[in-house]
Design a protein that fits this description.
With 816 residues, this protein is mainly β. The chain is 1% helix and 49% strand.
Length: 816
C-alpha cells in the first residue's frame, strides 16, 4: 500500500492504525477521535520502505504489533507515545493466543519455542528452551492437501483451556503451560498428528492428520465425525461451547458449514454453501451469530449469517447483483448491530445489520461522495472509525451513529487529478508495452481505467469509457496480441458480465469483438494469458482461446472440475488444473486439450509455474519439476529442501528462486539446478539481469539489505554496492527493470529517501538517477517497465500524488 490506512484497532480510549504517506512507509498512528489528536506515534524506520507490519492485539492496555521488515523485525508494543513504543522480542510473534493478560506465541527457526508476554520487557520471555536443531516441518509429518484454486488456511498450534495453554510443536509433541518454565510440561507425542488447535469454550477444536476433526479436553482427542468426507477445512470460531468450521466435500467440491459442541452427537452439518472456487472467508462472531462471506460464481462475494441452526444459516443480502458481488469486509459490532463495508455497484459504503434481510441496509448520514475502504472498521463510544477516499484523497474518517454525521480526522497523502490508487481493491497495475507506448491502469478511488501513453501528457489517453455512477470498474489481465490490446472487463449491458474486450490503441476504442453473438460470447472470465499468437481465457468452468477476432475466438474445453485460478502460459499453449490435481495443456493452434499428468503424480499440487524456453518448470511441495507439455516429457528435476519457496524469476536460460535463505538457479536439468549462495536472514526481491545473471536484495551482518548480483556461480555472487553504508541501515533495493545493459531499481540511501537508481553492474556505475521529492522524503518508484526508448513507472510526489512517470533512457540503449 503506497498510501492509505489499514488495520484499525481500539485500545482503551485510543484508536491505532497503520498509515502511509509520501514521507513515511506504513507506520503506526493513533487517534483520540479528534483531528488534532490524530498523529504518527513513531517512525519505526525512516523513509518509506517499511513493510510487513501487522496488528497482534492488546494485553493490559498495551498494543502489540509485529514488524517483519528485516531492519526492525520483531514483536513491538506501544502505549501511544514514542517513548512507550519499542521492540520487546526479536521473534515476530504473529498467529498466537491472548488469554488472561498474556499473549502466547511460538518462535525460533523451527517455531518450536513457546513464548509469552504481558506487554513489558521483563514479562516477555520463552517458557521452553530452544530446540537443539531445526526440526522437520509439520508438512513432512503429514502434508494436508489444499485445493489448487484456493489460499491455504492459516493453521494455529496454540490454544487455551481453562488456566492452561496447549502448544503443538513441529516435532509432533504436545506441551502444557501456565506461564512459567516451571509450570510448563511436555505431555509427549499424541496418538494423532496435530495440524490445528482452536479454543472452543470447555474444549479445544482440533484438526489432525488428513483433516480429522477431534475434540480435546485435556486428556484425549475424541473423534467428532466417524466417516470423513472432506479434503479441506476453515476454522470459523464460535461462542460458549458451540464451534463452527467450514468443510470442503471431497466428492462434490462444495463447502459446507458445520457446528459442534465438542461431542459426536452434537456435531452436525448446517448448510451447503454456494458453488464457488474460493473458501468462505471473513468469519466473525458477533453476539451469538456468525457472519462470513461466501463467494458464489454467479452472485459474487456476499455476506452470510448463521445462528447455529440450519434454517438460521443463510445469505444475508445480495447487495450488488452480478458475479462480482459486494466484496464485504470488516464485520464490527457496536451495540446490538453489526457494521461492515460493501460495494453496492455504485460505491463502497458502510452498512448495518441486525442479522436479518430487512434489517440490513446502508448506514444513514454518510458523507456524499465518500468511498469507504474495504480494509477495517473499529469504534469508540458511539463513533465508527474507518479509512475512506473522497475526491481522490485517502484519510481516516469518523461516523457518529447517534448523530448520523461523518467527519474526516486526518488525510494521508495528497492526490490530484486521476491519481493512481495502488491501494485500491481492484485492478492489475503492471505496465505493458504497445509499440512505443505504454498501457496501464489508473484509478480515482472508485474505478480503474485502462490508459495508453506515449510518455507525454497530451499523449496519455483513456482506452475505454467508464459508465456513469460506476464503482469497481476495472480492466484486468491486459496484454498485447499483434496490433490489438486485449483485456477483461465488465460489459456495459445490464448483465455486467466480465468478458473479453479489444482495443486498437486509439482513445476510447475499447469494444467487444464484433461478429460474436451475445449468447455465445465468452463471459464470466477470470484470467487471461498469452502463449504464442493466442490468448487463453479462463471462463465459467471453461477454457477459451482468442486471436482478437470472431473466427479466432472459440471454446477449447468445458468441465465442472476446472480450477478457476490455475491458468498459466507455457510452451505449446496454456496449462491449467482440475480439481483432482491433474495438469492439462491446451493448444489453440491444433485445437487439442490433453492431460499432461494425473493428480496421483503429485505429493501436493503443481505451483510456481514458469516458462523457461520450451519447458514449463514448476514445483510440487518442495520438488522442482519440468514439462514439455506431454506426459512422457514431464518429470521431477530435483528435491529443493524444506525452506520457503519464493522469488521465481526468469533471466536468460535460468529460472532463479529462493529456498529459505538460499539463492537457487535452474536450467531445467538436474545438474544445472543447485543452490548458489546462502544469506544470513534471507533474500529479498529478485530482478532479471544481463544474459543469465540476476540482481537482488541480499542481507549480511556487515551491510544489512543491499544490492547484490549473481551470474549463477558461488564465486560470481557478490555485493554490488552498499548504498546505505553500514549494518545499521539498509537500502532494500527492489522493483528491478532491465534497460539495455543497465538495471534500474528503487532504493533508499538514508539521505534522499526511496528514489530511482541505476547500475551497469559495477560499484562506480551504481548511482541515483532522480530525486523526485527533492528532499528526504520518498517517491517510492514501482512497476518499472521499459517501453521503446522510455522507462515508465509510478511514483509519489506532494504535487501530483501517485502518478505515472516516464523518462528517456535512449542513452542506455545506445551503449549496448
Amino acid at each position: 500500500m503506497d498510501r492509505g490506512i489499514s488495520s484499525l484497532y481500539q485500545v482503551g480510549e485510543r484508536i491505532y492504525f497503520f498509515g502511509s504517506e509520501s514521507s513515511h512507509g506504513s507506520e503506526l498512528w493513533t487517534s483520540d477521535g479528534t483531528p488534532t489528536g490524530t498523529r504518527l506515534v513513531k517512525d519505526l524506520k525512516p523513509g518509506t520502505s517499511l513493510s510487513g507490519i501487522g496488528m497482534v492485539g492488546q494485553v493490559n492496555g498495551i498494543l502489540l504489533f509485529y514488524v517483519a521488515d528485516a531492519d526492525v523485525k520483531g514483536l513491538w508494543r506501544s502505549d501511544g507515545t514514542a517513548e512507550g513504543t519499542f521492540q520487546i522480542a526479536s521473534p515476530l510473534g504473529g498467529n498466537g493466543l491472548i488469554q488472561d493478560g498474556l499473549y502466547w506465541f511460538y518462535a525460533g527457526q523451527a517455531e518450536d519455542q513457546l513464548w509469552r508476554t504481558d506487554g513489558t520487557l521483563a514479562g516477555t520471555f520463552a517458557v521452553t528452551a530452544a530446540p537443539a536443531a531445526a526440526r522437520a516441518p509439520r508438512s513432512s509429518v503429514s502434508q494436508p492437501y489444499y485445493p489448487p484454486y484456493d489460499t491455504p488456511p492459516t493453521l494455529k498450534h496454540i490454544a487455551g483451556l481453562g488456566d492452561d495453554v496447549y502448544f503443538a510443536t513441529k516435532a509432533g509433541r504436545l506441551l502444557k503451560s501456565s506461564g512459567t518454565s516451571e509450570s510448563t510440561f511436555d505431555l509427549g507425542t499424541p496418538s494423532v498428528a496435530i495440524l490445528d488447535l482452536r479454543p472452543a469454550g470447555s474444549w479445544i477444536s482440533t484438526f489432525c492428520d488428513s483433516w480429522d476433526w477431534r475434540a480435546f479436553r485435556g486428556n484425549e482427542f475424541v473423534k467428532l465425525v466417524e466417516t470423513q468426507t472432506w479434503s479441506d477445512a476453515r476454522d470459523a470460531g464460535g461462542w460458549a461451547d458451540l464451534h463452527f468450521v467450514a468443510l470442503l466435500n471431497s466428492t462434490t467440491y462444495r463447502w459446507w458449514l458445520w457446528s459442534s459442541d465438542g461431542t459426536p452427537a452434537g456435531t452436525k452439518p448446517l448448510k451447503q454453501l454456494p458453488y464457488a472456487a474460493k473458501a468462505p472467508t471473513a468469519f466473525a462472531v458477533r453476539g451469538q451469530k456468525l457472519y462470513f462471506v461466501a463467494d458464489d460464481e454467479r452472485l459474487g462475494a456476499e455476506p452470510w449469517v448463521s445462528d447455529g441452526s440450519p434454517e438460521g444459516t443463510h445469505l444475508l443480502k445480495d447487495i450488488n447483483r452480478g458475479e462480482y458481488g459486494s466484496q464485504v469486509s470488516g464485520f464490527h459490532q457496536l451495540g446490538n448491530e453489526v457494521y461492515f463495508s460493501a460495494n453496492d455497484g455504485k460505491q463502497r459504503r458502510l452498512w448495518r445489520t441486525d442479522g436479518s434481510l430487512k434489517g440490513t441496509k446502508p448506514l444513514a448520514g454518510q458523507a456524499k461522495g465518500l468511498n469507504v475502504s474495504s480494509i477495517s472498521i473499529t469504534h469508540q463510544d458511539d463513533s465508527l472509525y474507518f479509512p475512506a477516499v473522497k475526491n481522490g484523497y485517502f484519510g481516516l474518517w469518523q461516523h457518529n451513529v447517534a448523530t448520523r454525521k461523518s467527519s474526516e480526522l486526518t488525510r494521508l497523502g495528497a492526490g490530484t487529478g486521476n491519481a493512481l490508487q495502488t491501494s485500491s481493491d481492484y485492478g492489475d497495475f503492471h505496465i505493458v508495452p504497445f509499440g512505443d507506448s505504454a498501457v496501464f491502469l489508473a484509478g480515482d478511488g472508485r474505478n480503474n481505467t485502462l490508459y495508453i501513453s506515449d510518455g507525454t501528457a497530451a499523449g496519455t489517453l483513456p482506452l475505454e469509457t467508464v459508465p456513469r455512477n460506476s464503482w469497481g470498474w476495472s480492466a484486468t489481465d491486459h496484454l498485447v496480441l499483434g496490433d490489438q490490446i486485449l483485456f477483461l472487463n465488465k460489459e456495459k449491458s445490464r448483465l455486467r458480465r466480465r468478458t473479453l474486450h479489444v482495443s486498437d490503441g486509439s482513445a476510447r476504442s475499447a469494444k467487444l469483438i464484433p461478429g460474436i453473438p451475445a449468447k455465445t460470447y465468452p463471459a464470466y472470465l477470470t484470467d487471461m494469458v498469452r502463449s504464442g499468437e493466442w490468448a487463453y481465457l479462463m471462463g465459467d468452468r471453461e477454457i477459451w482461446a482468442s486471436r482478437g477476432d470472431a473466427p479466432g475466438t472459440f471454446s477449447l474445453f468445458k468441465s465442472d472440475s476446472i480450477v478457476s485460478t490455475s491458468l498459466v502460459a507455457g510452451p505449446g499453449g496454456a496449462f491449467f488444473q482440475t480439481t483432482d490435481r491433474s495438469l492439462w495443456n491446451a493448444d489453440a493452434e491444433s485445437g487439442q486439450v490433453a492431460r499432461v499428468r494425473d493428480g496421483s503424480s503429485w505429493l501436493y499440487k503443481p505451483e510456481h509455474l514458469h516458462q523457461l524456453g520450451n519447458l514449463l518448470l514448476f514445483t510440487d511441495n518442495h520438488d522442482l519439476w519440468r514439462s514439455d507439455g506431454t506426459n512422457q516429457g514431464t518429470s521431477k528435476i530435483k528435491a529443493l529442501g524444506d525452506g520457503y519457496l519464493s522469488g521465481f524469476t526468469v533471466s536468460g536460460d535460468f529460472l532463479w528462486f529462493t529456498v529459505g535463505y538460499e539463492l537457487w538457479r535452474s536450467d531445467g536439468t538436474e545438474a544445472g539446478t543447485f543452490a548458489v549462495a546462502t544469506f544470513g536472514i534471507g533474500i529479498g526481491e529478485l530482478g532479471a539481469g544481463l544474459e543469465n545473471s540476476v540482481f537482488f536484495s541480499g542481507w549480511d551482518e556487515n551491510h544489512g539489505w543491499e544490492l547484490w548480483t549473481s551470474d549463477g556461480t558461488p564465486e560470481g555472487t557478490r555485493l554490488l554496492k552498499d548504498i546505505a553504508p553500514g549494518s545499521a541501515r539498509s537500502s532494500s533495493p527492489g522493483s528491478f527493470a532491465l534497460v539495455g545493459d543497465t538495471i534500474y531499481f528503487a532504493a533508499e540511501d538514508g539521505i534522499h529517501g526511496r528514489e530511482l537508481w541505476k547500475s551497469d553492474g559495477s560499484e562506480a556505475g551504481t548511482f541515483m538517477v532522480a530525486d523526485l521529492t527533492g528532499d528526504s522524503g520518498s517517491s517510492s518508484p514501482m512497476r518499472l517497465a521499459r517501453v521503446g526508448e522510455q522507462l515508465f513507472f509510478d511514483a509519489t510526489t506532494v504535487q501530483t500524488g501517485r502518478e505515472i512517470f516516464a523518462m528517456d533512457v535512449s542513452a542506455d540503449l545506445q551503449s549496448q
